[in-house]
């Protein structure tokens, strides 16, 4: 099926919903979803964005800017995942616990604004990894239009480019809690350490970055083609000093490079 055919299916599906609240993070997928929803439904499409300790301020600001530029109503809700029972213990179903709480709040916000449905931006590639959050989405009857129209991540980026969205080549992002090895306690202090470490690397010019935390060890994931840049003498020392000052005792580079869901590699199949 061509991308134009999938685009038509996507628009028709969203139109059939009548009114939608888009769970909007400002990432590649949710930005495309919000753009199409607003094109199809106009003011019957709103954005709901969660602000929390696991969501960096730069991402929140980018989401605000997009909504302002496109005259889209955005509602920001405040979520404290660390108060969700069991969340801070970082069990294997952490994402389920978080998504269940978050989307319950988004559903409440949608009802308060007379919106019929909540939609979110997962695509068919998200079905290939361990994603317990999708279980919560299904249980709450949250709609996933990109999956409905069979969009892959590559196709999401392609259509985003064709529609002139700045996010078409934006690096992938996931909440900062995903940087913790399962079973390690998640604290606000460590979330800030990880967020500031990644911000530092991004400001140095590294686009796709993860700083995984293993107790007091930082494990940096970047694209392999950037390995030469990170081990240049000036950068290497700058990065080491900066992350030490943030509270890390050791700073390491993952030789396999960036990949999504690397913490899931420790799970039993």
Explain what this protein looks like in three dimensions:
Helices cover 43% and strands 13% of the residues. With 269 residues, it is α/β, with parallel strands linked by helices. The strands form two sheets. Strands 3-2-1-4 form a four-stranded parallel beta sheet, sandwiched between helices. It has a three-stranded mixed beta sheet with strand order 5-6-7, with helices on one face. The longest helix is centred in the middle third of the chain and has 19 residues, at 94-112.
So what's the overall shape? globular
The overall pLDDT average reads 93
Order of helices and strands: HEHEHEHEHHHHEEHHE
Report the total helices. 10
Going across the biggest sheet, name each strand in turn: 3-2-1-4
Cα radius of gyration in angstroms:
19 Å
Gist of the model:
This protein is an alpha/beta fold and 269 residues long.
Write the layout of secondary structure elements.
Layout: H1 3-17, E1 20-23, H2 28-41, E2 45-51, H3 57-69, E3 74-78, H4 94-112, E4 117-119, H5 133-139, H6 145-148, H7 153-162, H8 188-203, E5 209-214, E6 217-222, H9 227-230, H10 233-246, E7 250-253
Parallel strand pairs: 1-2, 1-4, 2-3, 6-7
Antiparallel strand pairs: 5-6
Helix pairs in contact: 1-2, 2-7, 4-5, 8-10
Question: Characteristics of this structure?
Answer:
269 residues; single chain; 7 strands; 10 helices; alpha/beta; three-stranded mixed beta sheet; four-stranded parallel beta sheet
């Amino acid at each position: 099926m061509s991308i134009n055919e999938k685009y038509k299916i996507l628009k028709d599906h969203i139109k059939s919903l009548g009114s939608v609240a888009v769970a909007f993070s400002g990432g590649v997928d949710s930005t495309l979803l919000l753009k199409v929803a607003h094109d199809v439904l106009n003011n019957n499409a709103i954005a709901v964005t969660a602000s929390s300790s696991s969501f960096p301020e730069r991402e929140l600001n980018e989401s605000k800017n997009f909504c302002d530029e496109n005259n889209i109503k955005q509602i920001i809700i405040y979520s404290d995942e660390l108060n969700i029972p069991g969340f801070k213990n970082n069990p294997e179903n952490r994402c389920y616990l978080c998504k269940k709480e978050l989307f319950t709040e988004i559903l409440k916000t949608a009802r308060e604004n007379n919106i019929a449905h909540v939609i979110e931006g997962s695509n068919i590639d998200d079905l290939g990894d361990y994603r317990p959050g999708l279980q919560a989405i299904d249980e709450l009857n949250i709609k996933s239009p990109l999956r409905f129209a069979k969009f892959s991540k590559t196709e999401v980026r392609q259509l985003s480019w064709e529609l002139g969205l700045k996010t078409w080549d934006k690096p992938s992002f996931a909440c900062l809690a995903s940087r913790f090895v399962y079973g390690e306690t998640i604290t606000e202090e460590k979330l800030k350490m990880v967020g500031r470490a990644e911000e530092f690397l991004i400001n140095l010019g590294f686009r796709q970055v993860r700083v995984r935390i293993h107790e007091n060890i930082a494990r940096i994931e970047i694209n392999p083609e950037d390995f030469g840049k990170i081990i240049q003498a000036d950068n290497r020392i700058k990065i080491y000093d900066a992350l030490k000052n943030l509270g890390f005792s050791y700073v390491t580079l993952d030789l396999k490079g960036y990949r999504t869901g690397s913490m899931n590699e420790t799970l039993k199949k």
